[in-house]
Amino acid sequence: QVQLVESGGGLVQPGGSLRLSCAASGILVSRYHMAWYRQAPGKQRELAARITIGGGTAYADSVNGRFTISRDNAANTVYLQMISLKPEDTAVYSCNADYGGPIYRNYWGQGTQVTVSL
Predict the structure, then answer these.
(1) Distance, CA of 35 to CA of 45 (rounded, Å)
(2) Which of 5, 28, 38, 100 is least surrounded by CB atoms within 10 angstroms?
(3) Sign of the C-alpha dihedral, residues 33, 50, 96, 68?
(4) Strand duo 3-7 + 77-82: pairing
(5) Closest CA to 48 of 76, 67, 22
């Protein structure tokens, strides 16, 4: 059974930092393209950051330079380091694993709330 468990969300003031974690079981994060998506109230879910099996990274323009995605294969965990947080970063952040191979395998975590407010 595959599980992606996010943690690290919470309430933070503008300009603050948070680090989200996505702990995986049932799959190896080293063999999946891993990503963080976010969904703000009343908005569509959007890709925030992605790390490929080869280690390449990509970011949404709105978070580029402030967010960093990384992967710890030994811990089987993916992280999202967020700095200089803004109120518009408020959203539910969800971890996604995409196999990317000929067989479709795609998994989601339950999400963690990030609220940026005074």
Answers:
(1) 12
(2) 28
(3) positive
(4) unpaired
(5) 67
CB-side exposure of 40: number of CA atoms within 13 Å?
11
The residue assigned the tokens 């990503």 is: 35
d(CA 72, CA 81): 13
Q: Which residues does 14 contact at the CB level (< 8 Å), separation at least 6?
A: 85, 86, 87, 116, 117, 118
Return the residue matching tokens 């996505």: 22
Query: pLDDT tens across 31-61, in order?
Result: 999 999 999 999 999 999 999 999 999 999 9
Tokens for 76, please give them.
């089987």
Q: What's the rounded Cα separation, in Å, for the pair 117 and 12?
A: 6
Kindly provide the b/e burial profile for residues 71-88, where b requires at least 16 CB atoms within 10 angstroms of the residue's own CB.
beeeebbbbbebeebeee
